[in-house]
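Supplementary Text 2. Reproducibility record for the structural model of the 73-residue chain.

All settings were left at their defaults, and a single model was retained for analysis rather than an ensemble. We include the record here because the model underlies the residue-level annotations in Supplementary Table 4.
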Amino acid sequence: MLNILSVLIGLVALLFAIPGIIPLLGILNWIAVPIAVVGLIVGMLSSRNTGRNVNIVILLVAIVRLSLGGGIF
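Retained model, structure tokens:
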């Protein structure tokens, strides 16, 4: 059950991370990162790895995008 919750939290974070890839909307990644961290914690409590892995990928994409844009753009 925690795995499904983690995947759902990851999908919510993904809704913020995808538009955050577009130039000048990178600030949305600041919203996606904490949501993905919560999903990662829930995924770590689960016995399966899917939710944890989804949130790790979203975190990596959001953090790389933030670092490329200087944290704002």
